[in-house]
């Protein structure tokens, strides 16, 4: 073996050893970096696309941006959650199925209320504690993996969710389902709390849906909407509550009332 050949060989050995060491280090670093149960890197193109296509603004405070982006990608580009959980799915005049320029109904986005026979899709937006559909992450994972209805809404029919394609979604990894949960945590809540001017401690909560549900904690107002609060006197029964643009409209025996600046009950022009 010539001098040159020997040098070349030992160089090759050093390079080979180095490559193996670097390979080992890379493996070690990626194992250390990966959260439990998560072996794959989150693809940044999906994160960015997910953030770009969310039909509603996301609140990233205290959230993991990558997970929110991936979650939006799964919800809005794969999962079709909007098809069943937004009522109606598209803004007026913006239904792509009618050849109109698409615009998702941002105001009712994932707020549920779509009837399927005896079943009604649920409000997936965060509750007052920031929990999507009022579920913890563990409950959410269990729901999607097993179909268990944590609210047991129709025990006479089944303890399991019907219509909802959990047998399909349940095959996602916990990392991906966790991303869906993180996205749902970041979207606007569709439970409205309004105060009534001049009535201390008053609170009126409207949960979007079809029909919307209205709950009162208003001194002097009962659950049927009858009132003896002076500023509400004469309102009578609330016949219908609906969201119009960014306002809440109440149709009562006494006429039409809309919310303004977070307060409700200013009589609107008939
Ligand atoms: C084919 C229609 C359909 C699609 C698509 C759909 N859902 Fe549902 N979902 C429903 C219905 C209906 C219910 C309520 C079922 C019942 O009451 O048995 C429900 C219930 C749920 C619940 C239970 C909530 C609770 O209050 O406990 C969760 C969570 C949920 N869906 C999440 C999702 C997510 C996330 C997606 C998209 C990845 C999605 N759904 C897509 C129809 C659908």
Give an account of the 3D structure.
- By secondary structure, this protein is an alpha+beta fold.
- The chain has 3 domains: 1-33; 44-186, no CATH class; 191-267, no CATH class.
- It has 7 helices and 9 strands.
- The chain has helices spanning 3-33, 44-53, 65-79, 81-85, 137-146, 166-169, 174-186, and strands spanning 115-116, 119-120, 191-194, 203-207, 213-217, 238-244, 247-252, 255-260, 263-267.
- The strands form 3 sheets. Strands 6-7-8-9 form a 4-stranded antiparallel sheet, with no helix packed on it.
- Helix 5 (137-146) packs across helix 7 (174-186).
- The termini are far apart.
- Residues 14-37, 220-234 and 260-270 have low confidence and may be disordered.
- Heme C (HEC) binds next to helix 3, helix 4 and helix 5.
Order of helices and strands: HHHHEEHHHEEEEEEE
Q: What count of helical segments does DSSP give? A: 7
Distance between the termini: 103 Å
- Going by helix content, strand content and strand pairing, the class is alpha+beta
Shape: globular
Count of folded domains:
3
Quantity of strands, as a count: 9
Q: Describe the largest sheet.
A: 4 strands, antiparallel
Mean of all residue-level pLDDT scores: 74
Low-confidence stretches: 14-37, 220-234, 260-270
User: How big a fraction of the residues is strand?
Assistant: 15-25%
Ions, cofactors, ligands: which are bound? heme C
Query: In which order are the strands of the major sheet placed?
Result: 6-7-8-9
Radius of gyration equals 26 Å
Helical content band: 25-40%
């Amino acid at each position: 073996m010539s001098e040159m050949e020997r040098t070349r060989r030992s160089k090759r050995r050093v390079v080979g050893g180095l490559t193996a060491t670097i390979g080992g280090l890379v493996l070690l670093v990626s194992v250390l970096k990966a959260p439990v149960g998560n072996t794959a890197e989150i693809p940044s193109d999906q994160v960015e696309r997910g953030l770009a296509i969310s039909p509603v603004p996301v609140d990233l405070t205290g959230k993991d941006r990558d997970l929110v982006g991936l979650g939006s990608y799964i919800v809005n580009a794969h999962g079709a959650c909007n098809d069943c959980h937004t009522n109606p799915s598209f803004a007026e005049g913006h239904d792509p199925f009618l050849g109109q320029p698409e615009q998702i109904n941002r105001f009712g986005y994932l707020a549920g209320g779509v009837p399927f026979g005896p079943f009604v899709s649920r409000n997936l937006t965060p509750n007052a504690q920031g929990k999507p559909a009022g579920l913890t992450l563990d409950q959410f994972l269990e729901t999607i993996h097993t179909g268990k209805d944590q609210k047991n809404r129709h025990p006479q029919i089944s303890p399991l969710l019907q219509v909802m394609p959990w047998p399909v979604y349940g095959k996602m990894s916990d990392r991906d389902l966790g991303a869906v949960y993180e996205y749902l945590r970041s979207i606007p809540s569709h439970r409205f709390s309004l105060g009534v001017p001049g009535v201390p401690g008053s609170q009126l909560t409207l949960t979007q849906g079809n029909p919307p549900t209205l709950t009162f904690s208003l001194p002097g107002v009962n659950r049927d909407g009858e009132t003896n609060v002076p500023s509400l006197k004469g309102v009578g029964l609330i016949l219908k509550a609906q969201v119009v643009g960014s306002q809440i409209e109440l149709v009562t025996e006494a006429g039409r009332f809309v919310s303004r600046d977070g307060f409700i009950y200013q009589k609107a022009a008939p």
